[in-house]
Amino acid sequence: MISKRECERSSCVKVNGDPSNIEIINSDDTVVIPKEKGPGTGNRMNYVRLLHSVQTAINDSVSLEGCFRKVVDMVPSEIHDFSISCSRISFDGMVFQSGIFAISDSKYASDILVEDVVHGKFEVYFRQGLDDAGDLSCMGEEIDVVGCISDMLGSFAENVLVAKDLDIFRTLADTANYGVAVLDINGTVLYLNNSFAAMHGYSPEEVLGSHFLMFYDDEQVPRLKYLLDRVLADGHFKQEEVWHLRKNGSIFPVLLDCNVIFDADNVPSNLSVMMRDISELKKAEENLKRAKALEDAATCSKSEFLCNVSHELRTPLNSIIGFSEILLDGRCGDLSDVQQRYLQNVFRNGNQLLEIINDILDISMIEAGKEEMVFEKFSISPVIMEVKDSIMHSILKKGMTFSYDPDPNLPQINADKTKLKHILHNLLSNAVKFNSDGGAVNINAGTLGEMMHITIKDDGIGIPKEQLPHLYEKFYQVDGSTKRLYGGTGLGLALTKKLVSLHEGQMWVESERGKGTTVHVMLPL
What we know:
Blueprint: E1 13-15, E2 22-25, E3 30-33, H1 41-60, H2 64-78, E4 84-91, E5 94-97, E6 107-114, E7 117-126, H3 133-136, H4 140-175, E8 179-184, E9 189-192, H5 194-199, H6 204-207, H7 221-234, E10 236-245, E11 251-262, E12 268-277, H8 279-328, H9 337-367, E13 376-378, H10 380-390, H11 392-397, E14 401-403, E15 413-415, H12 417-433, E16 440-448, E17 451-458, H13 492-502, E18 506-511, E19 517-524
Parallel strand pairs: 14-16
Antiparallel strand pairs: 1-2, 2-3, 4-5, 4-7, 6-7, 8-9, 8-12, 10-11, 11-12, 13-15, 16-17, 17-19, 18-19
Helix pairs in contact: 1-2, 1-4, 8-9, 9-13, 10-12, 12-13
């Protein structure tokens, strides 16, 4: 009988010139079957010739469909005096039957394996009259032949599927705009796509068989060796930035991804490398850094200029305000009603101008990085009450209600007290300014994790949702018309936001038109 082992390799059958000298080759030895030697030798030689014919047909096939069609027609037709009447192949949903197909009660089926997974079956049906076990027990050689053919079909199918996968891989890799390479475990280049070769100024043929180190200068070699050790230890690395060497000696920055490819025994066999040239990205980053540096320098210069101008303006303005106050107090004699009214206008507008200058000066100092912070531990409740008292005149003038329920268990906050007063003053002043007569303002302070959470809520005119993202822009006014009802420069919230940021805190606003506004401030404890 022909053992199944004798047909494990795709080249298991070989005819040396004269068909009477037929070899069955396996991995261990070669058995030579001489012509008509001993009982049954003629049948055995027919089986071997059949296997040789099947192997030749398989080797000449280029597709699974063509191969399977040839084999199912060949097996019954080649066995003239054998007991097989017809055959059938089923493989991954495809079914192929011999031209003359008559199902009998006696059959034998052998699995078609691809990478040790059953993908189909090769079935043969024996001629009628061989229905009992005794008759079938004599069919051992036929059964072995069927097993050998199913092994041949499995090997061919595996080769075809691998070839398809390789074609898909090559198609994808060759059309990619990034570099793709496959190395053996020692770093020798086995495959690279056109993009990989072109990025380095080579043709693929110039690189194949070379070591991957050819793309690195002496300074980069230690880094590559480190990355190779790392990928063998971890199985992969991602987005590693290195410098590659072109054929002309120039270098350029790339991002590398590398993965280990394991064989069927889960042993590392190859390395896949994907490479992206980031030269343009690097240039863009450098241009962005230069532009940012120029912008920072311009902002710093502008802030220093505004700081100096504001300082120069504040000095004479303080004199105007101070002397106006002296005259209004009557220290230089009585004033007529007209003089009193004019001086009050000078005094009031002078203070408004001073407030604007102070805000500009504060913002300029912060942007120039010159604002100093003096942190200290204190209770926030007295600060809130102090700020409330400073705007109580405005609250009473509009007949508004103010509510604050201090929490005696509230922990102290570590902050710059002067700047916290400024934050609260700006926010409470806005809550009063943009509220109607008889409205309400509520302030609340509590802890949220390691933060102090302060909310200031009013039931005033509110802010349209589409304008909320612009609130912190300098000189921005929700009502930007020349006929707006509410004064101000649009610096208050911009400054407040910067003061909160100096505390490494957060600030946001919730509001809808006609439904009031809630401002949230979070400051570290």
